[in-house]
Amino acid sequence: MNRTNVYETIGALLGVCYRRITNRKHWSAAALVLVFYVPLVAQQAPQKVLIGGIQFDSADAYTSAYKVEAALAVALEASGRYALIPNVTRDSLVASLRNDSLSVQAAADKLGAELIAFCSIGRIANLVRMELVIIGGDGWIITTSGVGYATSFLVSDSTKKRVIDPAILTATQRALCVAVRDSSLYAAADSILAVHPSELAAVGGIEFIATNTDLAPWSVMREKIAASYDAVSTIVAAMRQNPDITVVDIETRDSLYALGGLFMVENYNAASRSELNILKGFEITHLISGRLERMKGGAELTLVYNEIKPDATYTPVKKAQFMIAVDSKLAFQDGVRACLRKLFGSITEPAERK
């Protein structure tokens, strides 16, 4: 039951209706019916949700059916609108009836569930993707779905291993927001749980431009391999807590490139069409790009927040500039953060230098 393929399961449950309802042309209507149905009971007892199946990579030690169930339980409860029927309750029902072939629909009916949720989790490096498919309504013919992303930057002090669980929860919450078409679902939740859907972004290259030969060369530009890596790392660190944008780190971005057959991508080159195609294929919708241009009085840093288009091009959404007066990596990093503040407001500030 816990390793069920989401789409095969729903297809088996709904048959021809599933093919019709899950046609993209019908998604909006079906989702609106479910969303309008949900607020009607929002002020009453929470709607009961039964897990119909969980799809995960059994080879990934950081994800499991148990972690997904736990995340969904918290995500549902934190909304104040839903409550999860634990899998152990469902399994006890199956055992008491001595019927291993009991359908998810039948189990939901017997347990008083109003919604059935199918979960699919995936992870690449530090990026977690959660997809929720929710069915409900009379005859279980209404379906809606949502995808949520979150990144993990936590490491255990004792084991030095990644701590993925908080990212699983955040991705689940965001997926639920999208599925029920309510980005303010957690507006009244405790601050640590007050999340909403976010845009998924990667950092492209930071180009170094020095066309004026009359100006003394900068060491930052001569050391562009290290300087560009530091700049990209600074962007990722500064955007960690941004509630509106999920920025993948270098390890994750390069893992995506590798899965797409692209290796040894340099951080001082503008993103190529191949890079953009790969990012788009992994549902990354935005790109942070930049350039550092040597000019009289220092060097001008420009950072641009771009939207990746379906044809693997990108267009600027907004940009910020900052004049760097000192030739040093620290001044460069300070300039990066200054541009980010102009672009996005508050950022995650670095620890104070001693």
Low-confidence stretches: 1-42
According to CATH, what is the topology of the largest domain?
Rossmann fold
> What is the CATH architecture term of the largest domain?
3-Layer(aba) Sandwich
Largest sheet, described in full? 5 strands, mixed
Give the number of domains.
Answer: 2
Structural class: alpha/beta
Measured as a percent range, the helix fraction is 25-40%
Q: State mean pLDDT (0 to 100 scale).
A: 88
Q: Going by CATH, what is the homologous superfamily of the largest domain?
A: ABC-type transport auxiliary lipoprotein component
Query: What order do the SSEs take from the amino end to the carboxyl end, as H and E?
Result: HHHEHEHHEEEHEHHEHHEEEH
Q: How many helical elements?
A: 12
Instruction: Please write the CATH class name of the largest domain.
Output: Alpha Beta
Radius of gyration: 23 Å
List how many beta strands DSSP finds: 10
Inertia-based shape:
elongated
Widest sheet: strand order?
2-1-3-4-5
Distance between the termini: 55 Å
Relative strand content: 25-35%
Secondary-structure map:
Elements: H1 6-14, H2 16-21, H3 24-40, E1 47-55, H4 65-79, E2 82-85, H5 87-97, H6 104-111, E3 115-124, E4 127-136, E5 142-151, H7 165-179, E6 199-209, H8 219-222, H9 224-238, E7 245-247, H10 250-259, H11 273-281, E8 286-295, E9 298-308, E10 314-324, H12 329-344
Parallel strand pairs: 1-2, 1-3, 6-7, 6-8
Antiparallel strand pairs: 3-4, 4-5, 8-9, 9-10
Helix pairs in contact: 4-7, 9-12
